[in-house]
Fold these 2 entries.
Entry 1:
Amino acid sequence: MSRFLFVVPPLVGHVNPTIGVAAELVSRGHEVAWAGHHDAIGKLVGPDARVFGCASPELVPRGSDLTGPAAFRFLWQEFLLPLGEAMKPGVRTAIGAFRPDVVVADQQAIAGGLVAEELGVPWITSATTSAELVDPLAGMPKVKAWLAERIDALRGGHGGPDPRMSPHGVLAFTTRELLGEVDLPHDDVWLVGPSIVPRPSTADFPWEWLTRDAPTVLVTLGTANADAGHRFLAQAAQALARLDVRAVLVDPDSSLTEVGDNVLVRRHVPQLDLLPHVDAVVCHAGHNTVCEALWHGVPLVVAPIRDDQPIVAGQVVDAGAGVRVRFSRATSTHLSDAVTAVLDEANGHRKAAALVGDSFRAAGGATRAADHLEKV
Amino acid sequence: MSVETTAPVTEGQVTQDQITGEAVLAEISGMLRVLLDEYGLDDVEITMATKFHEDLELESIDLVSLSADLKERYGNQVNFAEFIAGFDLEEIIAMTVGQLVDHVVVSLREAARG
């Protein structure tokens, strides 16, 4: 029996994949715990899970105009680097109290890798998005150096392994079918596929609203982009009102006022329960939403906003599983064309999505991840 | 598009005097308009001061396309990857069309000098 400590940032998409892996480890007789922001993590992992609290700055809302390299600077300078600094004491306490045999450190909770390395505990990277696997800053050496210097400063400036890419092993929740033929950072990057397990849903849903008479389209911009999405959602609502579909729009801020009769607006939806009934997803190309859609063989219209999303959107298009539109400029016409295109069987998007979904299930997900973690 | 009325800068066939910022700006504007074509850039004037990110909202995939367009137009005389690699984070955020135009003009003039 071993103990595994998951170090995670207060971001839903980074916590959810660890839940399935942890459950699998527990079913094999191991002990698990999380280190991270107590309330944010606690409500995701459930009341019975052991959570070691860590301090955490807030990810302040980012407007829709904060994109590209400016969004990168903001994300690191205003959130991930301060988060790394703030989480260090809590991670040290967690390791001291829980005595884990292995630390599983999320790529955006850099305190995990830094502290585990400092204390000599074996640590594995949890890559809940594949964007870092493709070396996104390869063409910008000065930007790469900017980040490396700041990360190194967090550990006292004496150098060491990149806390986002453990030399001991990287759990990457994707497969070749989505990632494409890129060179991986090292041999111990394990493509285990997404870790998708049923999760308790807090959102109710009027299931009777769905009908078999018309295809169902889900529009969601994920859990971290509500403030940026008002214009896009309004255009999407207009586009879908024109099509012979049933549409579900996730609008956390209730920014939409009038929509067509065939459009249902909800602040939250039980996404995993809904996806088996969905024929197309329009989203921001967040890695988790993309993987959950593809898991169910649902083709996508991707409108990346920032961060890893442009890379993930590129992977969806390259896999043939969807079409890409510009988040900031797409009009209702672009969006209705794109939705029509992915719903058209003749274009092959659904088939390509199903193939990626097959690869996900074959990769083993949480089970395969647990296999790797047991061997550390 | 107005670019067609401007004499193109053709590698190897021009004297240094013909490699003007004006001509290169027209060509690069043309490339950008093709890139963003279906998204209606009609209302956006592309000048030397236009910012790649803030004004045009270009994505990394667009920079890859632009790099290919530049290569097709100017061959190996212009190295876009090297141009990007020279910038630090603040410079990349603030990158303008004018900086690329200047880079292309300098590169072409150097190539023309042989």
Entry 2:
Amino acid sequence: MKPIHSLVLSAPLAMLALPVWADDDTIIVTATRTAQSIDEALASVTVITSEQIEQRQAQSLEQLLRNEAGLHFVVNGGLGKQSSLLMRGTSENHTLLLVDGVRMGSATAGSLPIAHIPLHEIERIEIARGPRTSLYGSDAIGGVVHIFTKASADEGRSEAQIRYGSYNTSEYNAGMHWGTRDFNYSLQASALATDGFDSIDGNNTDADGYTRNTVNLGLNYRLNNKGKISVSSMQASGMNEYDNVYAASNTDLYTNTYKLAANSVKFDLQFSETWQSRLNLSNSIDGYIDYINGTDNGRFNTERNQLTWQNDLSLSARTLTTVGLDYLNETVSSNTTTYTDTQRNNTALFAQNQWKWKQSDLLIALRSDLSDSYGTNTTGNLSYGLEHHGLRSFFALGTAFHAPTFNDLYWPSVGNPDLKPEQSQNIEIGTGAKGAITSWSLNIYQNNVTNLIAWAPVDPLDPAGPWQPSNINSASIQGIEWLLDATFGNWTAGFGIDLLEARDASTKTLLPRRPQQMVKFSLDGRLFGTDVGAHIKHVGEHFDDVFNTTTISAYTLVDLTLNKAIGKRWLVNARIDNALDVDYETSAGYNNPRRSYSIGVKYELDR
Amino acid sequence: MRHFSNSHLTLAGFIGISLSLHGVLLLNTSSETHEISIPSHSGSLSVALVQRPNQPTPTSGKPDASPIEKSAEVVPSAASVAKGEISDKVEKFAQTEKPAKSEIDQREQPAKTDAKQATQAAQAATSTRASNEIKRELTTRLQTHFEYPILAVRRGWQGDVQLSFRVLSNGNLINIRVARSSGYALLDHSALEALRRVNHVRETIHWMHQDHLDLTLPVRYQLKEG
């Protein structure tokens, strides 16, 4: 958005009336705050703040984000269970999840730890829809979910909260923030435990519980305006009980323990007034140990070490040139599966340039990834944004890829080392307007994904024999997102429609678990000094399988929230999840939480 | 739309400055006349004023284009110059604005010294009150030249930069420096560059009644939620 110069309009009149001035002739240069990932003038972006997270009192990313445009979650039964995010009709491994710039997820299964991401530690979430591989590399086909933890924030406050609710769910969290703008450090910790409920009816009838313990550490040190060193570390670990569809016996107890870590050291250096350089050294861990009846049934561990050197050149106020180098090492290990290769390296060069004119923006981005396991991939983005008569529009073209997983490439005897990355070409048009009372946006996109990896029997006539992955499928995805927001005094209402047509390009069947219609409505406001909110989401009927034979019924979820400040330091909040007590599925056979209540009390310093 | 309101503002602002300057002139004329009429005082005042150009002059400016430098040349030393000569110089230099002159001429036709003294007083006032007005006018004039760098927006950088500079009566802006940093080198640089690009504010020729003005200009970079 172009800077808006807020002129002191009353100045000449005041001059005539009053000849003596206060010395406040400040030139005010303003611009609309934008996401760090990408300018909102050039893409469909949603930013979620810590205040919004606090208001919604969600206990998982799925609960927090399920009402956001373009996002659909599939959960295999309650908190902590296998959760997938299908962004804009793409696959579960087509979304890049970053925590403080650190790439998350399992390189073996290709899944994301959506279920285990702690929420109290989050300062801000940026959801950038559409391909972003040309900046971040592999996986950003459907979009990017970038989580910024409180560790990376210069400001924060100290607080403590306890929460209790249905399914014997208890949650404790505390956070502290010390220091000044130039030197500060923070520590957050949380513990969540729930008895849960039976994930699959009739398949071991006990409740499937879950625990999550987290620590988030941050340290920021500013060097005389010349730079900044930031250290951040997010750790989560716990235990998860689950039901296995393929269980040999109905009495077997399936559990796993998990460990996640996102550690990074960032050096922001000011080489000159117009050259800002960021060196990001990061390490992430995604580890699981699976147990059957308490016996180790396999460990899978992914460790990533990444070095990103990004240079931002501000050659003029109206251009932003970014060039950088990215090196990523992925190492996997398992005690039961002997992968034919356990390590791979990817080196990338990327460059992008954004131009800003009075009423338009242009972004051109290019990135070349060289992997020692799946070759070279070059991706790009071209976006043009235009503002005309208060209408803000953009047109975007982008290509992206998703690297084959270690399971696909190197699973003993059946892995296919010749696999190529899955590739996508996305075209998108967005338009919208922001007014004092109402704002709206409309995005239309078409995404073609080719070289999709699918496992099939090596001998088609013998499905019981060995299966092997190959780049055989392709998908054609079209979608429309329409959002309308209105603010009346203390009240904000939101309405949104997602229409999606995601089909297998050759069989023309609908891709599984991609609802064709999603409608959301939200109302937030103040009533008798209390913040109240109602969030409603309707998901249309869709299919659970590739053959389009098993259906998942339509459902409507209503979440109600209440936040009341008592005095300056206390806050009482409550949430009713699934207020209509709908028995719904996102994955056939798996139960989801019925109506559940939770109440929390929070104490804050310096609210 | 913006163009319209800007030119409207400029006009209104100019009238505003003009009127208030005259107000200052008139006020000072009436209140300080008897005091300044003492000959010795008058002399020393004139000298003091004319000496101003001898103060350290900017290095980065354009001395040849500056009328101050010219007036400085004709005043080799305060003591050796005749009183009347100095006064004439001062008058000539100060009374560039026609309305001001004619107004004073009408009111104080016989007492020419009074007019001179009034001008001197006005000059003294210019550096206090009028400088604020000039600054305000400059603020509105310069506003459109400042831009928020894309990188700073992306990183969420905000802050106040204070620029200091000298306005010469020919409208040139010289000695542009960052007096106080915003904490972000890019914002400081961007503000500095914006003012350097402006370089010259032609209109000041009509406002300035003295050699130069040293000003500080606060620039606030502020992001709004949208």
